[in-house]
Amino acid sequence: MIFGEKFYPKLKKMSPWRQSLFALVLCQRMLPNFALYAQQKNVGGLSEFNYCLKTLWHFHQEKFNHIDLEQTLDVFTPFTPDINDDDYSLGDMYALDSALTLTAAFDAIIMHEGNEAEIASRTSMSGVLRLVQMDYEDDVDEDTLREDERVDNEVNFQVAMFELIAAAKRDSELVHNLIRLGINGFVSNIGIELADELHSLCDEYISTGKKRS
């Protein structure tokens, strides 16, 4: 799929903590999608989603910690969108993308089957492709999709992030840079903007990732 044949094998070769950070950045960028879903559906889960993001950033910030990642993820799991709901919508689908990517970020550390970064990559790209395909009445070929600016931006974002993570050592400076990258100006992978009143959700990520002297 587009850049997958060459890209995904590289993701699989990354160590568990690198795969987790790769997925975490993509999940952080999806925060506006989940926030909009929670607001429109009037359901819970946003604070729990945010708690998981914050805790996993902290996990990567502190190499030696006693954070129970399984217990942390369990806090959010009950709020995962149910595909069997009668009113399952496109918004639910994007919220589910967020949940799947969050799980991948945690599973890279908890289980590490070696494909967590690929799962996150495919999920984020699928969301963009889903959006682009809505602009066409008929099925479109891969070349047409690849030429779309939104798809191109997603490819470039993921490749640049991979190159950054693959070459970096695990320290506070890397976490700081990745948090900023994931927040992405409060705009998601599909162009959804995080409501102004929710910008404060990211304050703790930023303070968590500040460089230490």
Give me the secondary-structure topology:
Layout: H1 4-12, H2 16-29, H3 31-41, H4 46-61, H5 69-76, H6 90-110, H7 116-133, H8 142-147, H9 149-167, H10 172-183, H11 203-208
Helix pairs in contact: 1-7, 2-4, 2-6, 2-7, 2-9, 2-10, 3-6, 4-5, 4-6, 6-7, 7-9
Structure characterization notes:
It contains eleven helices and no strands. It has a single domain, classed as YP_001051499.1 fold like. α1 runs antiparallel to α7, α2 runs antiparallel to α9 and α6 runs antiparallel to α7. The longest helix is centred in the middle third of the chain and has 21 residues. The chain is mostly helical and 213 residues long. The N and C termini lie far apart (43 Å). It holds the Pfam family DUF416. InterPro entries: DUF416 (IPR007338), YP001051499.1-like_dom_sf (IPR023381). This is Protein of uncharacterized function (DUF416).
What integer value in Å does the Rg equal? Answer: 17 Å
> How many E strands?
0
CATH topology: YP_001051499.1 fold like
By DSSP (H or I, 4+ residues per run), the number of helices equals 11
- By CATH reckoning, the class would read Mainly Alpha
Summarize the structure.
The protein has 213 residues and is an all-alpha fold. It is built from 11 helices and no strands. It has helices at residues 4-12, 16-29, 31-41, 46-61, 69-76, 90-110, 116-133, 142-147, 149-167, 172-183, 203-208.
